[in-house]
């Protein structure tokens, strides 16, 4: 039954604040990676695990959310997830070592994975069916504002407090939302009463966790471990292959799968998941690489970094409800997907041309292309994923779509880390090849630096050594700049490579009523 008056207001505040809290944590840490690396004595490449561990947990838990909510009861599962998220946030902030922080970020991701879809489901039940477009609009704004506010809020906290406080900010919100959930959110009739009838797919859960976790370890550590020269990488490769293949086979043949992979027999869904995977690479990799680039090379503060991401996103916010209305009216998703891909390709190419002297407004056009691309891809890809599915298959199709997007993001960040490491070494080698006595430009620069140092210290020999070290620092800075710019181009390359597959997409014609059901399912299973 729909809620009324004060109760409805409380439910709106509770569900939207919980969703925003979860979404904030997907991006809030990106602007603090440099500070975390320095504080924890780790490299940027290792600190990336703080981002990817959260994403991996989301990948594992998202497809199981519907099952877990049915088994434990939606309210119980929602409350438990919120409490887990809040407690893990405290321990993230209290962590004194990198791997301790990574562990608690994973636990935080397990709790956070349920908050989006369950929050929206509870919010929708607070409205009559005819008023649910209002609920969808309210929640949609939260979905957009969460990731937008993350880098900005994170920047303000890091610049004025410490990186630990980006996790502590969740505590009062989590505690208040938990109390309001207990007091004001009612259980649905029959909720959580079918435990005895539900069979838990323990083997499926284990195989999914082992396969995804091992795959991510390979992607993250392969470069530093010399890939298959390492017995550890060989071991995890075997676990990943056996785990994922066994998971697919088991889920296709078991009577009660935790993830119903049989829906992949629909060609449109299977093909759409490829596009969703690449869109996840673009979405997550771009907002991971950019903060590291501008803070390490361009000298941005964390606050400047957050603001430079926020302004273009705020401009693009109106696109989300406009596209949502078009989808509900039965508009074909494919044209939106084509435009979204072209915008992302343009973003990667443009961002790959920027310099180490660029200011936040120089990056503005590229980011505007990125967020417009996101707006053109998010909801249309979900609608394309369920095209051809039966209404009862919508939740499974959408859960798979969301899982694959998160997996694409985690994979993209790992690829970016390895690619940057490789490209830095290559660019350094190329630049150092020009630092010879036969190069007049190099000698002119070296002599100038040496004379400057000698005038300050009065010792020519030590001044020469200091000049060489300064030149080495300049070379490394330029090598990192070129490597990060290459990474933006690689993002474009992913989109370019699969772009021709768009012409294989087919969208069965839906009535307006069917389109509205699909749009509602897409919103309800975000």
UniProtKB/TrEMBL annotation:
Membrane topology annotation: Multi-pass membrane protein
UniProt keyword terms in alphabetical order: Cell membrane, Membrane, Transmembrane, Transmembrane helix, Transport
One family name in Pfam for this protein: MFS_1
Domain Major facilitator superfamily (MFS) profile residues, every copy: 11-510
Subcellular location: Cell membrane
Source superkingdom: Bacteria
Transmembrane segments: 9-28, 48-69, 76-99, 105-127, 134-154, 166-186, 198-219, 231-250, 271-293, 299-322, 334-351, 479-503
Main location, first listed in the record: membrane
Entry-linked PANTHER family: MAJOR FACILITATOR SUPERFAMILY, MULTIDRUG EXPORT PROTEIN EMRB-RELATED
Protein name: DHA2 family efflux MFS transporter permease subunit
Naturally occurring in which organism (per UniProt): Xanthocytophaga flava
